[in-house]
Amino acid sequence: MQDDLLKKIISHAKEYGFIFPSSDIYDGLSAVYDYAQNGVELKKNIREYWWRSMVHMNDNIVGIDAAIFMHPTTWKASGHVDAFNDPMIDNKDSKKRYRADNLIEDYLGKIEDKINKEVEKAAKRFGDSFDAAMYKSTNPRVLEYQQKYDAVNTRFNKAMNDNDMAEMKQIIEDCEIVCPLSGTRNWTEVRQFNLMFSTQVGSVSEDSSTIYLRPETAQGIFVNYLNVQKTGRMKIPFGIAQTGKAFRNEIVARQFIFRMREFEQMEMQFFVRPGTEMEWYEKWKETRLKWHTALGLGEENYRFHNHEKLAHYANAAADIEFKFPMGFKELEGIHSRTDFDLKQHEQFSGKKLQYFDPELNQNYVPYVVETSVGLDRLFLAVLSASYKEEKLEDGSERVVLNLPAPLAPVKVAVLPLMPKDGLDIKANEIFNTLRKHIYCVKDEKDAIGKRYRRQDAIGTPYCITVDHQSLEDNTVTIRYRDTMAQERVNVADLVNIVNDKCSLNSLL
Ligand code: GAP
Hints:
Layout: H1 2-15, E1 19-21, E2 33-35, H2 37-56, E3 61-63, H3 73-77, H4 80-83, E4 85-90, E5 97-99, H5 100-126, H6 132-138, H7 140-161, H8 165-174, E6 191-194, E7 198-201, E8 209-212, H9 218-222, H10 225-231, E9 238-247, E10 262-272, H11 277-293, E11 302-306, E12 316-324, E13 327-338, H12 340-349, E14 355-357, E15 362-364, E16 367-374, H13 375-386, E17 387-391, E18 397-401, E19 412-416, H14 423-434, E20 440-442, H15 448-458, E21 462-466, H16 468-473, E22 475-480, E23 486-490, H17 494-502
The structure holds glycyl-adenosine-5'-phosphate.
């Protein structure tokens, strides 16, 4: 059912000019996608929402745009050359490659599902008096599942923390995990696979050296930290924000734009006094969740997931998860990265990256709290939560994207009832006035109903119809996407009506 929804979204995104497979005429490139004419607008609006709320609305956050290529030592210092790995395993029968951690996580997910089913069944049986917590702590079957879950989960977390690939393989064997394709347990050993793409810089092979396509934008911020702090006369606590492409050679790339090999991140590193990082970590968790829920996609679609296994740089980490068509999955990460990155860069570059704190009269390397969200994942969250198939009163059906109006690719479609009798000229006038304020299109082809459907399918919040009455009294019909209600309004009021709902200001 939910798989169906993802398939529908993928085909809708292609049919209506949001997302195409990359190099489509060559049958695409795995896990790489192109944003089309409507997709690029939606993506730009999401990015703009992030930038304005992070940079323009915060006195102590500034933005940068660092290069994708960085000095190769950056990635030695950050730990990515040695530790940016995923555990990989192949099934010898199907020849399919998997992430070993994903196989174990799926296994744990199935146990969780079984527990939830037991609880749901019992809730139906006992009705209002049902106490779920009590049931979970006493029911023998649930307890058995829970014990199994805890035992595997503890081993799994330890194996991941210790980078113990032999133990990962042992867990897969002990849990009798089979390949979803071949159904067999004929596995290779588990090996570490580095996710960074590398290439050569330099024209002749003798002076060429290996450089990497950045796997995260964060390091561009760390290496610029002192330049920005000094030239911007920034006082701690302060942040540096950046949006841009990142590249990862993902072992298993699937689920559309959820996991791509080339994607875009929107990251902010917040530099704080050591010892205050947990306070800021909590504050940023709360701030970021509010930012997401302001979009109106439904508060029930978000939840926090605190990490048990921490990345090599973090002393606390949580994901904001979103309910995608494939279930709750990571949308944004909030990480307390300690002083790990700056200290590493100090060591590898031989340059001091300290801050003089006038209040403490002391130098120190700041601690960092990071917020990191994938722009493409957010795009998928917005698209999947907005996609609706509706049955109308007259028995017909429509597909509509209930996009938050400020994010909609096109805000207004101006539709002359027919392209003659001066209606087209009047429509042009209105169009030329509106386009100075917001992105709008003009559509003259086909019956008006068909044109409404086309705009519904790309999520245009307003359609403005110009008819013969418009020529007499300078009024038009405005038709609202979500309710399909129509209203007669004065042309002079259009800019205000539309701006009121479509401006990003309404979200900030
Ligand atoms: N600087 C920290 C960092 O990069 P991460 O959890 O690896 O942390 C942050 O990535 C965010 O980037 C994720 O929450 C996700 O939204 C996005 N992201 C990561 N890998 C991705 C991929 N392969 N495709 C699309 N988005 C991805």
